């Protein structure tokens, strides 16, 4: 896993698998946010499989899909809410980690 720390409460990663959630737990993450739409690529795991394993390990999980075409106001609003509600530290992922970084930066901007 290629985890990049953005700050003490938020890190990003490329796509994770359900079995990676065990490592995420061992690393001390308390929440996972997926920014990748299901079925973006045929070989990616569905978010439901990640969320199910996270629940088993006591990790909160949210799906806030962001299409490669860009960030929507709805996704940004959901992310702002998630950051306020989810226990940290949070691991967010998408295909490469770029969307997870961008939405975090946008969610921190003043209104």
UniProtKB/TrEMBL annotation:
Keyword Cytoplasm found: no
Coiled-coil features, chain-numbered ranges: none
GO function term, MF aspect, one: transferase activity
Entries under Pfam families matching the protein: BLH_phosphatase
InterPro entries: BLH_phosphatase-like, Prot-tyrosine_phosphatase-like
Keywords carried by this UniProt record: Transferase
Residue intervals of the Beta-lactamase hydrolase-like protein phosphatase-like domain: 2-104
NCBIfam families membership: TIGR01244 family sulfur transferase (TIGR01244)
Protein name: TIGR01244 family sulfur transferase
Organism listed in the record: Shinella curvata
């Amino acid at each position: 896993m290629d985890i990049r720390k953005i700050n003490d409460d938020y890190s990003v990663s490329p796509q994770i698998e359900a079995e990676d959630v065990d490592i995420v737990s061992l690393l001390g993450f308390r929440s996972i946010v997926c920014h990748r739409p299901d079925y973006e690529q045929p070989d990616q795991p569905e978010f439901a499989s990640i969320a199910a394993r996270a629940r088993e390990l006591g990790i909160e999980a949210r799906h806030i899909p962001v299409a490669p075409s860009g960030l929507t106001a709805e996704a940004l609003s959901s992310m702002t809410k998630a950051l306020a509600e989810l226990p940290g530290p949070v691991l967010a992922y998408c295909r490469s980690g770029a969307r997870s970084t961008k939405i975090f930066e946008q969610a921190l901007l003043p209104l």
